[in-house]
Amino acid sequence: MMGNWDDLRLFLAVAREQSLSGAGKLLRLDPATLGRRMARLEKTMQAVLFVKSPSGYALTEAGVQLLSRAEAAEQAMRQATADVVVPSDQLAGQIRIGAPDGCANYLLPQVCARLVADNPGLDIQIVALPRVFNLSRREADMAIGVSAPTAGRLVVQKIADYQLHLAAADSYLAARPAIRTVADLQGHRLVGYIPDMIFDRELDYLAELGMTRVPLASNSVSVQVNMIRQGGGVGIVHDFSLPATPGVTRILTGDVHLSRAFYLIRHEDDRRNLRLSRFAEALAQGVRAEVAKLEAIA
């Protein structure tokens, strides 16, 4: 006996997260409740599915076998709804997007607000994390990345290029020695990423400038921007963030100009999912247009 789909959905989360707490966060379920559901599933299956220890939940041989069958059932469920068309050709249902927090803070809110306004039956969840998303573990339906992954069963689509420059608060610039050349930066505080928490080499901006000491650092782009806005120092900012940060000015634009790209990343199994494909195209168009609009007024 394989159990019902809801039990299998919970089982997949626990198997992928290898813990009740991690799965509970994804499912928004209390770990104790989730533990009872897994115990009930083991009773139904008449098999021990997990080896429980302080370090987490590891699959037994029976659990590994069920995982394979549950993943096949999951894909069948996703495919069964792939070609369902919502009346009026609108998008509906829940879609979760993983994104780096710069994109999640300065682009996705307005893009997703417009998509939901145009599709009242659509629910969008934005998960902003300063790391790479694991689509194989179904942490999100799709993700936006700053580099194109080369491993895994993934479909990758370039969305748009975006530009970055050095910037500082007007108040900081007024109170400190003038910055006319890159060499002048040696006398100024830098704001940037925590070096050992840079999750993608494309984000190692300051290394390109030969700068290693970062007095004010964060793994979050939005925190860095706020440090700069508060007069903390000089840092690399996305041009598309500047319209939302009045009082911050780009500097050395002729000497320091970085270009990066956003990529939309999906699991290969979702290639034939009509609903997700339509949403992905609308999302990509929206992000592309928003980058162009904000950079034009930066």
UniProtKB/TrEMBL annotation:
PROSITE patterns per the record?
HTH_LYSR (PS50931)
Q: Does the keyword Membrane apply?
A: no
Give UniProt keywords alphabetically. Answer: DNA-binding, Transcription, Transcription regulation
Gene encoding this polypeptide?
A: cysL_1
GO BP terms, alphabetized: DNA-templated transcription
Question: Of which family is this protein a member?
Answer: Belongs to the LysR transcriptional regulatory family.
Q: Which Pfam families match?
A: HTH_1, LysR_substrate
Q: Which GO terms describe its molecular function?
A: DNA-binding transcription factor activity; sequence-specific DNA binding
On the tree of life, the source organism's domain of life is Bacteria
> What organism is listed for this UniProt entry?
Sulfitobacter pontiacus
Q: What is the lineage of its organism?
A: Bacteria, Pseudomonadati, Pseudomonadota, Alphaproteobacteria, Rhodobacterales
Instruction: Domain (HTH lysR-type): give its ranges.
Output: 1-60
Q: What is this protein called?
A: HTH-type transcriptional regulator CysL
